[in-house]
Amino acid sequence: MLAIDPEKCTGCRLCETACSIHHEKTCSPERARIRVTKWENEGIYIPMVCQQCDIPICETVCPMQALRRDTKTGALIIDYKLCVGCKLCMQFCPFGGIGVNEETSKIIKCDLCSGDPVCVKFCKPEALQYLQVIALNLKKRKAAAEKFSKYLKQMLTAL
After folding, report:
1. Taking the CB of residue 58, how many other CB atoms lie within 10 A of it?
2. Per-residue DSSP letters for 24-41?
3. pLDDT tens readout for residues 5-51
């Protein structure tokens, strides 16, 4: 799973650049499969990418059955031989994880780079990590326990 930690994202957009070079062989962040959403006034940057949902709406609404699950990586892959470019998958994705290449009019989305995401390699603040779901769950539990411990100590000090 591609795990995103928005608190670590600096908004450098290097992930977009690396993705576009890897997939499109050109430096064009607009053609990346990952997009950094910016709220500059608040200083918040959130990388947005396909969540590879367990029950993917995009796959369900595709009239051509052009989306399929890669058994090796778990990524949803677009079969361009079947895709007619209707963009229903893009309209129904609740996370905005599907885009369109304006030059080719083809749908684009994260394919996890065959199990070795390039964006992760170039994310120096480690806002992006490629983890097994179990490892991600453990990491979140540990972070929650640390927060809880901190709050508990504050409450005990206040007594």
Report:
1. 24
2. HSS--GGG-S-EEEEETT
3. 989 999 999 999 999 999 999 999 999 999 999 988 888 999 999 99
Q: Which of 77-101 are b and which e, b meaning 16 or more Cβ less than 10 Å from the residue's Cβ? A: ebeeeebeeeebbbeebeeebbbeb
79, 67 Cβ separation under 8 angstroms: yes
CATH class of residue range 52-93: alpha beta
Say how far apart CA 21 and CA 30 lie, in whole Å.
Answer: 11
Domain boundaries, the chain: 2-49+110-158, 52-93
136 neighbors 128 (Cβ within 8 angstroms): no
Q: Is the dihedral of CA 71, 74, 76, 77 positive or negative?
A: negative
- What single letter denotes the amino acid at residue 96? G
Query: Which residues partner with 99 through β-bridges?
Result: 108
- DSSP letter assigned to residue 110: -
pTM: 0.79
Phi and psi at 41, nearest 5°, equal: -60, -35
